[in-house]
Write a structure and sequence with these properties.
It is a single chain. It contains 5 helices and 5 strands; from the N terminus they run βββββααααα. By secondary structure, it is α+β, with helices and mostly antiparallel strands. A 5-stranded antiparallel beta sheet has the order 4-3-2-1-5. The chain is globular, with a radius of gyration of 17 Å.
């Protein structure tokens, strides 16, 4: 049984590129004359509920909120040195979009760190700015749930580390 199939009602999960949500129900729906179990996931950030087939959840990157130790590592990663990135915004955008789709908390922290520092050199193109904003929001949400801190506290922690470079 995969991790995704082990989700339970009221469990908080991360849906990469969508945000942090809570499984409100597991329901069977009929699809092509078959009963298919679905997770009903409420995403507070967009105030919507989405239905995800249980057997597709893992493939979509849906995962549990990380433990606090992993959240701390992501915060540390934000303050670390990093390789300079390409000035070709399309290449950068595609690389970061791939990281966002993978959806690990360290991948998301890498996107935030990279695009934050790039924005200090030159204003980000609109698509990259949206990607940065999405990654930052996702990172703040997940870390706040993991560390049981407010979003404001986590935002302060993130920017303190970003500014230390």
């Amino acid at each position: 049984m995969s991790k995704a199939k082990g989700f339970q009602v009221n469990q908080k999960v991360v849906y990469p590129s969508q945000g942090v949500g809570v499984i409100t129900a597991i329901q069977e729906k009929e699809f092509k004359n078959e009963k298919v179990p679905y997770y009903m996931i409420y995403l507070e950030v967009s105030d919507m509920t989405i239905m995800v087939p249980v057997d597709k959840a893992e493939g979509l990157g849906i995962r549990p909120i990380v433990p606090s130790k992993e959240a701390q590592k992501a915060l540390e990663l934000i303050g670390e040195d990093f390789e300079p990135i390409t000035s070709d915004w399309k290449e950068r955008y595609n690389k970061n979009l791939d990281l966002l789709k993978k959806g690990s908390v360290s991948d998301i922290a890498t996107i935030v760190r990279t695009l934050y520092h790039r924005s200090k050199v030159k204003e980000l193109p609109i698509l990259e700015r949206k990607l940065y904003d999405s990654a930052l929001k996702l990172l703040e949400d997940e870390i706040s749930y993991s560390l049981r801190k407010t979003r404001e506290e986590v935002e302060h922690m993130i920017f303190t580390r970003l500014e230390s470079r």
